[in-house]
Amino acid sequence: MLKIDLVDQKIVRLLQRDARLSNAELAEAINLSPSPCSRRVRKLEKNGVITGYHARINPAKMGRNVSALVSIKLRRNGISEAQLFEAAIERLDYVTECSTITGRYDYMLRLHSESLDDLEAKLKTELAAIEAIDDMETTIILKSIKKN
After folding, report:
1. 3-class SS at 68?
2. 22, 44, 111, 127 — which has fewest CB within 10 A?
3. Residue 5: which residues within 8 A CB-CB, separation 6 or more?
4. pLDDT of residue 47
5. What CA–CA distance (Å, rounded) separates 146 from 138?
6. Domain containing 108 — which CATH number?
7. Domain range holding 116?
8. 77 pLDDT higher than 90
9. Interatomic CA distance for residues 43 and 120, integer angstroms
């Protein structure tokens, strides 16, 4: 297991806040010279601590004004049902997150839609058409307080 020291933790926190920091800016922020800083970042990437750099998008600015969490229960808890469901979800661009969970439901989806009518249509036509699904429960997100 990779040992993550306090300097590595600070690097990760800073890059989570702003992945566009240059190596020089990052090195200055952690009080390290650029070469060792760069080596640490490469090591974090190589060992899978840092898995990528992404642009955080505001869904509303893209015309997706409604965000929701959808809890999904599969008909059967088997590998073939899970594979069928996961393959179907991969094709839906409005689903931005899909996680397996414990409890009454098997999966939690985060999705974004243009309007409540659009959300309803997606739930009733596209999601309901996935044969592996037994039950769905939708929660509309009113306001996101924190995103990392």
Report:
1. strand
2. 22
3. none
4. 94
5. 20
6. 3.30.70.920
7. 59-141
8. no
9. 45
